[in-house]
Amino acid sequence: MSTSPYPWPWHGHVDPVRLALLAVACPRPAGPDREVETLAEQVRAAGGLVVSVRVRPPYRPVVPPAQAPPVRADRTVRAAGWDGFHGSDLDSVLRAEGRDLLLLAGCCLELGVHSTMRAANDRGYECLLVEDACTAASPDLRQGALSTIEMSGGIFGAVGTRTAVATLMERS
């Protein structure tokens, strides 16, 4: 399994009924990435839940700017800031569905995706950032955002690829 800095999930087994993909969408004019759509299809086919997490910058008008259409999702939540848990029912949705193994993908890596991952980790979720299904707002910040997740042995979770996720799905 090629996840870093540890084999994800830490307990060694992915149970699809515990798995959810958080497809984070920040305000931006472009459509969803094909990589996120493909990942959502894989997760759903394995029995996982796909949650579209719509984040927005704090302190902006309530009327959202143009946003990317979300991936086809089983659930959609709207957050009040960059963190998908802030001012939303994301935690309640995940707990009601029994989902504690989270894949994170979408846009923007160093903003909505990263903030949501840190908040999920703080709430006890086991997180894997799917790095090749994330778009960075600033390519210069991409490596730093990934490194922050992996520091201290995976302080916020692990980082992997869509190939690693596909391997996990095959083994489950």
Automatic annotation (TrEMBL):
Keywords: Hydrolase. One of its GO terms (molecular function) is hydrolase activity. The keyword Hydrolase applies. Transmembrane segments: none annotated. InterPro entries: Isochorismatase-like_dom, Isochorismatase-like_hydrls, Isochorismatase-like_sf. It comes from the Bacteria. Residues 35-154 form the Isochorismatase-like domain. The keyword Hydrolase applies. This is Isochorismatase-like domain-containing protein. The lineage of its organism: Bacteria, Bacillati, Actinomycetota, Actinomycetes, Streptosporangiales.
